[in-house]
Amino acid sequence: MTEHTYKHIELTGSSAESSDQAIKNAIAKASQSVKNMHWFEVVETRGYIENNGVHYWQVTIKVGFKIED
């Protein structure tokens, strides 16, 4: 295994569908400008309640990406 250096950033994705979709939305948007993403870690999950039900999800994640040589 070669040695790599990683950097991580924090993102918050949102979705009216689900917390999983909020994560996918954040990663998809970040992939437009961040290369070499390798992992994510959920830091915080929160939602918005409307009419006694979950109306919206927000999920904050840390995303690690490899710094190119």
From TrEMBL:
The lineage of its organism: unclassified sequences, metagenomes, ecological metagenomes. Pfam families: Dodecin. InterPro entries: Dodecin, Dodecin-like, Dodecin-like_sf, Dodecin_bact. This is Dodecin flavoprotein. SUPFAM superfamilies: Dodecin-like. PANTHER family: CALCIUM DODECIN.
